[in-house]
Amino acid sequence: MNNLKIIAVIPARYASTRFPAKLVQDLGGKPVVVQTYLATVATQLFDEVLVATDHQIIFDLLKVHNVNVVMSSDSHESGSDRIAEVIENINCDIVVNVQGDEPFVNKENLESLIGIFKKDIEQKIDLASLMFETTDLETINNPNNVKVVVDQNLKALYFSRAAIPFPRDGKSFVPYYQHIGVYTYRKNALLDFTQWEMKGLEATEKLEQLRYLEYGRTIQMVLTNHTGVGIDTKEDLDKARLLWK
After folding, report:
1. Is there a single domain that holds both residue 160 and residue 184?
2. Parent domain of 168
3. 3 shares its domain with 51
4. DSSP letters along 147-205, please?
5. Is 31 helix (H, G, I), strand (E, B) or coil?
6. Which of 56, 104, 122, 210 has the greatest number of C-beta atoms within 10 Å?
C-alpha cells in the first residue's frame, strides 16, 4: 500500500465571519495561504499540492506567486463538498485537507494521518482525523469546540458540540478529546459523501463528519499533542507574525 498516490488540497475561502480576507494577509512577506502552500510542499509528503478557492482575488494572487490553484464553486455547504469537486477528476488514492489558515504546518501530524492508510491493507478506514486530550472545563463545555468519543481502537463513535461523555455521577472515567478538523480521506469515500443526503445528526449538530458516521463509514482518530496555530482573528495574525520571526 506504499504506492498510494497522495495529494493535499488547501481550501481557501475568501469570506470569513470573524476575519474576512484573512488568507491574503501578509505573513513574512507573503500571503498567509501562500505560506501554508509552501510549508505543505516542503513536507515532501505529497505527490501534488493544490489550493482550491472560490474567489477570483485569491486565485489571481496565488497565480502571481506560482501556486498550483484551481477555482471551485462558491455554493458548497461543506469543506468535503469543495474538495470533492476539485479532486473528482484527479488520479489519486488519498486526499489530505490542509487548513489554509494554518501556515505552521505540522509534518508529524500529516505523516500520522497518511500512515493510517498505508497500514490499512484491507481498506476498512474511510477517513482519518486528529484529536487532542483536554482537561479544561471551559474548553469542554464550549460548543465551538467539537468533542469526539472513540472506541478502544480510537475509531470515532460520535462527534458533538456538547460535553461528551456526560459525567452523570460528577466524574468521567475516560479522557475528553477535542477534535481538530484536519481530515485525510480515501478518495471514493469523499466522492460518496457528495451523493448522500444530509441526515438528522448532521443537521442537528451542524457537523459534516457526522454524515460519514450516519452512513456507516469508519473514521480513524489520531491522538496528537500538536494542536496547530490557526489564524481566526486579527489577534491570531499578530501572534503568528511574532512566531514567524
Report:
1. yes
2. 107-227
3. yes
4. EEEE-TT-BEEEEESS-SS--TTS--SS-EEEEEEEEEEEHHHHHHHTTSPP-HHHHHH
5. strand
6. 210
